[in-house]
Amino acid sequence: MSSDIKSRRKSAPRPSATLFDWFARSASFVAVLCLVVALAQMFLRSTTFGKSGWPVALLVITAAFATLTSMSRQLAGQNVMLAATIIAVAGGVAHACGVITGIPFGPFAYSNSAGPMFFGTLAWPMPAIWIIVVLNARGVARLILKPWRKLKNYGFWVIGVAAALVVLFDLALEPFATRVNGHWVWLPTKFPWTWNGMPLINSLGWALVSILTLAFATPSLINKHSRSRKLPPDFHPLIVWVLLLTLFGTGAAMNQLWSALALCVATALISTVFAIRGARW
Fold first, then answer.
1. pLDDT in tens, 8-26
2. What DSSP assignment string belongs to the chain?
3. Do residues 196 and 179 touch, judged by C-beta distance below 8 A?
4. Phi, psi values for residue 19, rounded to 5°
5. Which pLDDT tens digit goes with each residue over 185-227?
């Protein structure tokens, strides 16, 4: 009798878990709604939206919130917030240094369309963008590498694959942010190779910063109870990943940036195929 009661208690959902599920679903719904509005702004080009950037700004906020609430369903809330703080601060400081010194991303400058600035150097969306990119890239990497989760160096592989995904995401983001919306401009450099106006040194900067942030944030993102109970695959990072690539690809197509569109489509398809394959292993 007592064993039956204990098993029922273990199987019954906790009120806090149910609350987090509700918040996560609500935040995801609002984020998808903001994505639809942002897509409508590009397609309609009507006076309803004008040239205002508020649909994309709302999308950044809601996507970051949806990412954090989704992760809080399987991890302690304070751990998720600690990891998000580490990523936001590290990414924000790196971009502030980039504006001042050109290191580590190359010389660039924000335009007025980027919105309010922190301390006159950092555009307000950048910390949130870093949270979205790094945490969802890690989530997609965990899906891809699920068949190898018992390997000794599994954690290092997750960081490496996540960093590679971050670079691909940034390559998709850059044409959307610079050529489509004009949020920042790249200044002339001595580097001969560029990607839609972006010096390729920027990709190296994103890779290095993402590796460093994940190295410090990963201990907070390890589920201490995952060994005692089998958790189902979390596809939320993949969904966020594909939807944002859809936004970037749509903007690239409408501005005839065909190489950027090809990158968005290829990144979305390849990451989806490998993530689903890994999750079903």
1. 444 444 445 566 676 677 8
2. -HHHHHHHHHHSPPHHHHHHHHHHHHHHHHHHHHHHHHHHHHHH--TTTTT--HHHHHHHHHHHHHHHHHHTTTS-HHHHHHHHHHHHHHHHHHHHHHHHH-TTT-SEEE-GGG--EETTTEETHHHHHHHHHHHHHHHHHHHHTGGGTTSTTHHHHHHHHHHHHHHHHHHHHHHIIIIIS-SEEEPP-S-S-EETTEETHHHHHHHHHHHHHHHHHGGGG--TTTTTSPPPP--HHHHHHHHHHHHHHHHHHHTT-HHHHHHHHHHHHHHHHHHHHHHT-
3. yes
4. -65, -45
5. 998 887 778 898 899 899 999 999 999 999 999 999 987 665 5
> Which residues sit opposite 199 in a β-bridge?
194
Indicate the length of the chain as a whole number. 281
Domain residue spans of the chain: 77-225+232-279
Main-chain dihedrals φ then ψ at residue 185, nearest 5 degrees: -125, 145
**What is the rounded distance in angstroms from the CA atom of residue 226 to the CA atom of residue 142?**
14
- pTM of the predicted structure, to 2 decimals: 0.88
Q: What is the β-pairing status of strands 108-110 and 184-186?
A: antiparallel
Identity of the highest mean pLDDT range in 76-80, 102-106, 263-267: 263-267
Tell me the one-letter amino acid at 16.
Answer: S
